Amino acid sequence: MTRTEIKPAVSAVKELLAQEPDALREIVRSVMQAMLEAEMDEALGAGKSERSDARLGYRSGHYPRTLVTRVGKLELRVPQDRAGRFSTELFERYQRSEQALVATLAEMYVQGVSTRKVKAITEELCGHAFSASTISAINKKLDGSLAAFAQRRLDEPFPYLILDARYEKVREGGVVGSQAVLIAIGIDWDGRRQILAVEMANRESATSWKDFLLRLRDRGLHGTEFVVADDHAGLRAAIREVLTGAAYQRCYVHFLRNALDHLPRKADDDCLQELRWLYDRRNLAEARADLAQWLARWSAKYPRLTDWAEETIEETFSFYRLPRRHHKHMKSTNMLERFNEEIRRRTYVVRIFPNAPSCLRLVRALAVETHENWLEANRYLNMDELREQKKTELRKAA
Q1: Nearest alpha-carbon partner for 119 in 129, 127, 111
Q2: Residue 265 confidence class, pLDDT cut points 50, 70, 90
Q3: Hey, how many other C-beta atoms are within 10 angstroms of the C-beta on 101?
Q4: Contact 57, 328 (CB under 8 A)
Q5: Torsions phi, psi for 130 (to 5 deg)
Q6: Are 162 and 333 in contact (CB under 8 A)?
Q7: Which PANTHER family does this UniProt record tie to the protein (predicted)?
Q8: Shortest CA distance to 243 belongs to which of 307, 162, 316?
Q9: Is the Cβ–Cβ distance between 194 and 376 less than 8 Å?
Q10: What residues have CB less than 8 Å from 11, skipping those under 6 apart?
Q11: DSSP letters for 172-210
């Protein structure tokens, strides 16, 4: 489709959505229905009513199937063949995370810690109420596939590693508290992102992060040269101990947020804006030169901030040792943000998890869905430049 053809198509879609709010849901439903029909054509070796010597079977009507999606419930018609051999994989990946959400909500209801709203949501999603045995069956099926994902071997090297944690409300022993969800993302030498691990911990401590990284290493994690993470004392200690030799990049976004703690409430916006610009320079020499100018300009007005920045900012400049095209991706933990946003969207419905396993089940299900989408997408980074840079460094060292 040419650019001149795209514009009218986009305008038509926008007009449709403006006139009919449910139009997006209908578009998604139509696409998924077409995918189901195409799957059946491929399985039978012929289209509907098509005469072909290569035909492997015949259609036998449809059966209804409801799929819960981000745009609402879709009522689909799944094609059947006379021999009963046709099976679609279209729903399996998408429904894994949806089942985890439903199971969590239903578990809350069964344990008596939910509200009428939760009961209504679960019945709306699945069309019926839940018993303890139903939830047990759902969880048993989910937990098997999620455990296989969490325990898989990491045979390939991951030169880049991104670590972060978020907190969820969990009920334990009748008391609601915050528990940490520890997340690790790796980038392999093919330039693809992979979610390596998602685990629960009572809190972010040196011990919990060390155990987390040791389990990754036991599963085969190796070849890590560059780690991006927040400035957490326990995490930094664990990185130094377990990932010996890997360079540490302190997330510059978190660093800039921390800078606010060293400024008065009514501070000059230009000060932080100029500090932010240091991370857009071409190389470390330029960044350090601009840092010197920034310190000279603001040290008299904001000595507390400039003293703190001068002492700690170098660890946010580690990304400058990487190929320039990798800078914007590896100077922060932002690549985790979209995944975290999806977690927030789901956990907002739950609010308080009935127990830690239900929280881990939902987040891991989302991790599997995201992980598979990333593997099927285009490469996130071109690693050829990093290979060439390493070769150059080895030649110089020799």
Answers
A1: 129
A2: confident
A3: 22
A4: no
A5: -125, 145
A6: yes
A7: TRANSPOSASE FOR INSERTION SEQUENCE ELEMENT IS1081
A8: 162
A9: no
A10: none
A11: ETTEEEEEEEEEEEEE-TTS-EEEEEEEEESS--HHHHH
pLDDT in tens, 58-90: 888 888 887 766 556 778 888 888 877 777 766
Rounded to a whole number, what is the distance in angstroms from the first to the last CA of the chain? Answer: 52
Reduced to 3 states (helix: H, G, I; strand: E, B; else coil), residue 32 is helix
Indicate if the pLDDT at residue 279 is higher than 60.
yes
pLDDT at 329: 95
CA angle, 273 then 279 then 284, to 5°: 135
Please choose, from the candidates 215, 88, 227, 102, the residue with its C-alpha nearest in 3D space to the C-alpha of residue 163: 227
Burial class (CB in 10 A: 0-12, 13-18, 19+), 36: buried
Nearest to 74 by CA among 85, 84, 66, 64: 66
pTM for this model (two decimals): 0.72
Domain spans of the chain, in order of start: 18-88, 95-149, 157-385
Contact 216, 196 (CB under 8 A): yes
Neighbouring CB atoms inside 10 A of 283's CB total 11
Cα(113)–Cα(358) distance, integer angstroms? 13
Alpha helices in 299-383 (DSSP H): 303-312, 327-330, 337-350, 356-376
Cα gap 173→223, rounded to integer Å: 41
Each residue's pLDDT tens digit, 298-353: 999 999 999 999 999 999 999 999 999 999 999 999 988 888 888 888 777 778 88
Q: Return the bridge partners of 166, or none.
A: 181
